[in-house]
Amino acid sequence: MEKTKYQQLAIDLKKDIQSGYYSENEKIPSLREIQSIKSCSLTTAKEAYRILEEEGYIYVQNKSGYYVQNQIKSIILGPQNEFYESVEADDRIQQIMNTVMDPKLLSFGAAIPSEEYLPIQELNLTFKKAYLHKEIFTYGDLQGNPNLREWLAKRISMFGYRVNSKQIQITSGCTEAITYSLYAVTEPGDTVIVPSPIYVGLFQILETLKLKVVEIPYRSGEGINISEFEKLIKRHKPKVFLFAANFNNPNGILFNDQTKQSLANLSYEFGIHLVEDDIYGDLYYEGTRPKPLVSFFQHSNNGPKTFLCSSFSKTLSPGLRMGWVATKTGIQSVSKISRAFKISENHPTQILVLEYLKRQTYERHLKHLRSEYKSLSKEYIKLLIEESEGNLKITKPDGGFVLWIESALDGDKLLLEAKKLGMAIAPGSLFGLSKHWNHFFRLNVSVGRTPKIREKLILFAKRFLKNRNLKKTF
């Protein structure tokens, strides 16, 4: 899509600021001056400066002019609120994912927990019990097993989002839960705001539903800048926020409660629905389980709808395909959509999960996972930084089991280098629509800590020693 004159001017000025041509707190040319320098109209100059101000690059000082924002380097962390009329991601994603998911490679790329961290033995025992239930051979309840929904309702309510079993729809994993939720409140051509980087599979959903996208950056120390966010809402009039507020995949970031409350207030004020991906919420490293973003929202029949989406894929087994949507005001829409695609969910699997949960080992299992993943993250970070001699910059996650890593090497090319070593990583280009993440990659720490794994990581890290000046880019 061809850029307008003011959009191109804004891009050119941003590049000047990013390159250091204009430094922090330095006064930049006035509107009249830039009009003369760039041979553009005054309207074009005003619109370009408006974009720069909205995106946090410049600020206005009364009766003085425009200045570069203080601490500009900490502000330029991601895509600068970029708008996309359409999403075309599926072909590119599938091409890369074929390599990332190659079973012949040691998979550091896919965010899949290894069998070592899954309760395989306990699940095998409950398989036998599940098949003693006669009802497994029927379709079952259209919303999902009532007892399983009751268990989920009680647990979800413990974290601040009080729902009952009738407000839950069982789904085939979290991705399906998110798809149904978006389907329930959008039409083709509606706009969705998503943070960047974000889980790669969401782009395929957005493309399929023909939705427009505004990609917003994480800001240093706050997650989402609320005043900036409000300006984007007024400008783009989004229908939905699509967030992973607890340990976003791939960067492991956790929104603090203040940010969550501010986002909730904005949503209610402007009537914007929320679809929340909370699949990593149970895998926190410190303190207590963080509240989901939906728990901060006001709920009324006439207000915006909220949808909490999750699954057991990251904690029990991805192969179970057992997820859910919890929603106080949107369950009829979600259940109707679910019935349009299938009569019911996998009944034997629901019974299997329920039998496991009855054993009351889930919390103990989660406690073990949190301890292991926190330890593994620390070990991987230490090893990678030491073996690369500081040529990697790693975002320390607050939870989950993936690392978000920046280097001066292109992530797509790095995937090919890793493949030569018999391993796979997930290049950063998968996690955003812009090219901002091309020098990033994601690494799965749940692969474990065997001597073979350590050897692979050391060989991989040493690849970054070929250029001794990499660390100077950070």
UniProtKB/TrEMBL annotation:
Q: Which residues form the HTH gntR-type domain?
A: 3-71
Please name the source species.
Answer: Leptospira bouyouniensis
Q: Which cofactor does it need?
A: pyridoxal 5'-phosphate
> Is Coiled coil a UniProt keyword of this protein?
yes
UniProt record similarity statement: In the C-terminal section; belongs to the class-I pyridoxal-phosphate-dependent aminotransferase family.
- SUPFAM superfamilies named among the record's database cross-references: PLP-dependent transferases, Winged helix' DNA-binding domain
Coiled-coil annotated spans: 359-386
Ordered alphabetically, the record's keywords are: Aminotransferase, Coiled coil, DNA-binding, Pyridoxal phosphate, Transcription, Transcription regulation, Transferase
Q: Signal peptide position in this chain?
A: none
Matches recorded under InterPro entries? Aminotransferase_I/II_large, Class-I_PLP-dep_aminotransf, PyrdxlP-dep_Trfase, PyrdxlP-dep_Trfase_major, PyrdxlP-dep_Trfase_small, Tscrpt_reg_HTH_GntR, WH-like_DNA-bd_sf, WH_DNA-bd_sf
Query: Annotated Gene Ontology MF terms?
Result: transaminase activity
Q: Which CDD domains match?
A: AAT_like, WHTH_GntR
Q: Which domain of life does the protein's organism represent?
A: Bacteria
Can you name this protein?
A: HTH-type transcriptional regulator NorG
Q: Record keywords: Iron included?
A: no
